[in-house]
Amino acid sequence: MRRTTDHAATPETLSDPGPASHRTSPGSALWRFADPRSLRWKVAAGVAAAACAMALGIGILVHQTTQNRSLSIARAGAVEDLGKAETAFRAGQPPQSHPATGAYYRVGDELPDELRDRIGSGAGPVTWYDTRHPLRGYEMWAGSRVNGTLLAVSVDMGPEQRSLEALDRHMRYAALAMLAVVVPLTLLAAELLLRRLRRIAGTARRIKRGDLDARTASRGHDEISEISSAVDLMADALQERLRGEQRFTADVAHELRTPLTGLVTSASLLPESEPTDLVRDRVQVLRALVDDLLEISRLDAGAERADAQPVPLGELVTDCVRRTGLDTRVTVTGHPVTATDPRRLDRIVTNLILNAHRHGGPPVEVTVDGTTIVVRDQGPGFPPEILAHGPQRFRTGAVERGHGHGLGLTIALGQARVIGARLTLANAVPRGAVATLELPDQEG
Fold it and tell me: Are residues 285 and 352 in the same domain?
């Protein structure tokens, strides 16, 4: 496959619209915000997980501390009530329960087996936290053996248990409220960082489109500022390298003009013969190449300016096809007229037609519909690397050399930018290459 290429191609000249995240559509901003792959949601998820872990740790600590404190107070109260009961029992008085305080006395067989086993044959006092009946309520027991009789006091832990459950419930509510505040603040903080990153990405895309003066101009001393500085330094180096290449192209073209003029004059003085015709043909090819290089150098330098005037597109395109002398089918819809530079438009259309005949396959068709001009051939189409990365000068897309210089689309693309047009390269289905030139929609 052979196809002329252009080093200065931009994403606007390609048929591939690029990654979905870079496309502009009414819902793109909303999708970018809601995209779960976005860094903002990863940061928010990390902060939310850290906040939940912290809330869980603090909740467990507070729960355990509060429970231990309640058990300690209940244990001390039960032992104190048991001491009073022992004193009354030794004095021959029956111990009195105190329902108001939740203290109840038990003697002998009324004691739970677990507490009886804990007291054993010892004198005590022994405490035991009974958690066997969560629905009925927990109890704190304190028991001892007095004159061979088992005596115990139980303290109802229901209020303390309910207070602990209420505390756990309030901590959960507080954790949810904290997340409701922390997550939006995290998204806001992440958005501030992402905005700087998007600005850097936008600068990189502008550089890719050919705006070599684009810079991030970021200030600061954090990691994002380091990335911005690196992008700016890369852009400076790339700009200097490309300008050096442009200066070299311009210098070569200018230096070749003087000897080429002498060569053209000398070739015209040669006697008529077959070798003379061959020499003259090659001289004309060299002359056309030097003229193309000079035109490219002017386009690279931004020295070209459009001279807009009302142009009947159908007549201009038909005249372009006629002057090429190539078999090209022209279809014009209506009588479109637009304000543009006719000389530059003629140069663009001529190069597209020559490119289609040289590297495509017949038939070649040119369609004019409104302010859109489409040149299509039936060849193998543009190679994928050209559609993906843009054309490059002096690369024709062919394995062999010598069939074109890869400058036709370079000039077409450069002139299209001068007149404010959009040139798009694409492949047709099932085969063929399509070059679409969209002119500014303004009538003269």
Answer: no
Answer whether 311's CB lies under 8 Å from 337's CB: yes
Query: How many Cα atoms within 13 Å fall on the side-chain side of residue 433?
Result: 26
47 and 173 belong to one structural domain: yes
- Residue 276 and residue 151 in one domain: no
Q: Is 436 exposed, middle or buried (0-12, 13-18, 19+ CB in 10 A)?
A: middle
105 CB neighbour count, 10 Å cutoff: 20
Instruction: Give the global pTM.
Output: 0.52
Provide the terminal-to-terminal Cα distance of the chain, rounded to the nearest Å: 40
Q: Are residues 319 and 427 both part of a single domain?
A: yes
Rg value, the chain, Cα: 44
3-state helix, strand, coil in the chain (%, to 5): 55, 15, 30
pLDDT of 400 above 70? no
Range of the domain at 311: 11-15+306-438
Residue 370 Rama label (left phi>0; alpha psi -120 to 50; beta)? left
Distance between CA 227 and CA 214 in Å, rounded? 15
Output the pLDDT for position 102. Answer: 61
| Whole-angstrom distance, CA of residue 16 vs CA of residue 383 | 13
Structurally, the chain folds into a number of domains equal to 3
CATH of the domain at 288: 1.10.287.130
Same domain? For 293 and 427 the reply is no
**218: Cα separation from own chain's centroid:** 19
Coil/strand/helix, residue 378: coil
CA distance 373 to 314: 10
Note the pLDDT tens digit of each residue in 233-262. Answer: 888 888 888 777 777 777 777 777 778 778
Helix (H, G, I), strand (E, B), or coil: what is residue 329? Answer: strand
Amino acid symbol at 223: E
